[in-house]
Amino acid sequence: MLIDTSAQPKQGDIVGFRLVTGEEILARIVETTATHLTVTKPVVVQMAPVGNGQYGLAFAPFMVSVAEDSKFKFSVDRIVATPIRARQDLASKYQEMTSSIVPASAGIIPNLGG
């Protein structure tokens, strides 16, 4: 197994992780402890049809019934894949969708063959 310790995520980083229930989450780290990961503005990453048999990635709110600035605390024993810094294209789209900051290199998430 390859583990790049220089790329360990820290507070403020946009990360992806997978829960034991199967959801792939993209969120911004607020705090990490030995027992919990606290994040803000989590979204579920999903495959979605974009037409002509093509698929792309879509973001859906993790919870739609809570205030946008809510913090979510995940128990580390409910996380299958530990938080890893998000791909730059996904991080840029996430930042664009969850804040008023628009990255200079904003673009469309590339389609995936389907």
Summarize the structure.
The chain has 1 helix and 6 strands; from the N terminus they run E-E-E-E-E-E-H.
Average pLDDT number:
86
Task: Please describe the biggest sheet, giving its number of strands, its sense, and whether it closes into a barrel.
Answer: 6 strands, antiparallel
Distance between the termini: 29 Å
Structural class assignment: mainly beta
Morphology call: globular
Q: List how many beta strands DSSP finds.
A: 6
The fold-level CATH name is: SH3 type barrels
CATH architecture classification name: Roll
Please write the CATH class name.
Mainly Beta
| Topology pattern, helix = H, strand = E | EEEEEEH
What radius of gyration results from the CA coordinates? Answer: 15 Å
Please mark out the parts with pLDDT under 50 across 5 or more consecutive residues, or reply none.
Answer: none
Q: What is the helical fraction, as a range of percent?
A: under 10%
